[in-house]
């Protein structure tokens, strides 16, 4: 079966079954390794990407369900020369230790800030509940999201 999806602004025509998890397509077929395989059961958030405007667990989301929506991965946020406000804030707040969860955290935070530009701490904690960090830097992550929100608002 041939499936066409747009990832980070680039169209891809793929010969994969429609029920293939989006994460596998991103990593194995397109070569984008930012989203990580954590649990494979949509419980940890390491695989979080945006499908349309929604934070989505790519490990269980079938590529055939993407449809006309655009997929955004952490690779689209920024690069070494130009970082997104969230990436800068994560660095400033030291909100990553091992870094395994970081791409999923960043994408979930981006989806949150796109919906709610000025979230309070309670909102951030509620909205980020499903994103797991085994290193335990959740407080730093909350501070980083608050910092990025402030920068994005100007």
The run of helices and strands is EEHEEEHHHH
When the domains are counted, the total is 2
CATH class of the largest domain: Alpha Beta
Looking at this structure, what is the CATH superfamily of the largest domain?
Answer: Beta-grasp domain
Task: Summarize the entry for a quick read.
This protein has 154 residues and is an alpha+beta fold. It has helices at 22-30, 85-92, 102-115, 121-127, 138-153, and strands at residues 2-7, 10-15, 48-51, 54-57, 70-72.
How would you characterize this protein structure?
Keywords: 2Fe-2S, Iron, Iron-sulfur, Metal-binding, Oxidoreductase. GO terms for molecular function: 2 iron, 2 sulfur cluster binding; metal ion binding; oxidoreductase activity. InterPro entries: 2Fe-2S-bd, 2Fe-2S-bd_dom_sf, 2Fe-2S_ferredoxin-like_sf, 2Fe-2S_ferredoxin-type, 2Fe2S_fd_BS, Beta-grasp_dom_sf, Diverse_Oxidoreductases. With 154 residues, this protein is α+β, with helices and mostly antiparallel strands. It folds into 2 domains: 72 residues, Beta-grasp domain (Ubiquitin-like (UB roll), Roll); 69 residues, [2Fe-2S]-binding domain (DNA polymerase, domain 1, Orthogonal Bundle). The protein has a 5-stranded mixed β-sheet with strand order 2-1-5-3-4, sandwiched between helices. Helix 2 packs across helix 5. The chain starts with a strand and ends with a helix.
């Amino acid at each position: 079966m041939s499936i066409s999806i747009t990832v980070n602004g680039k169209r891809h025509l793929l010969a994969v079954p429609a029920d293939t998890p989006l994460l596998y397509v991103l990593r194995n077929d397109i070569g984008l390794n930012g989203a990580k395989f954590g649990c494979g059961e949509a419980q940890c958030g390491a695989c979080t990407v945006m499908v349309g405007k929604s934070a989505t667990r790519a490990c269980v989301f079938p590529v055939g369900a993407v449809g006309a929506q655009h997929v955004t991965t952490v690779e689209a946020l920024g690069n070494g020369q130009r970082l997104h406000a969230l990436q800068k804030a994560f660095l400033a707040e030291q909100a990553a230790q091992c870094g395994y969860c970081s791409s999923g955290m960043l994408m979930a935070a981006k989806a949150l800030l796109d919906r709610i530009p000025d979230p309070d701490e309670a909102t951030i904690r509620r909205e980020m509940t499903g994103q797991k960090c085994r290193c335990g830097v959740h407080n730093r992550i909350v501070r980083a999201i608050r910092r990025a929100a402030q920068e994005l608002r100007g």
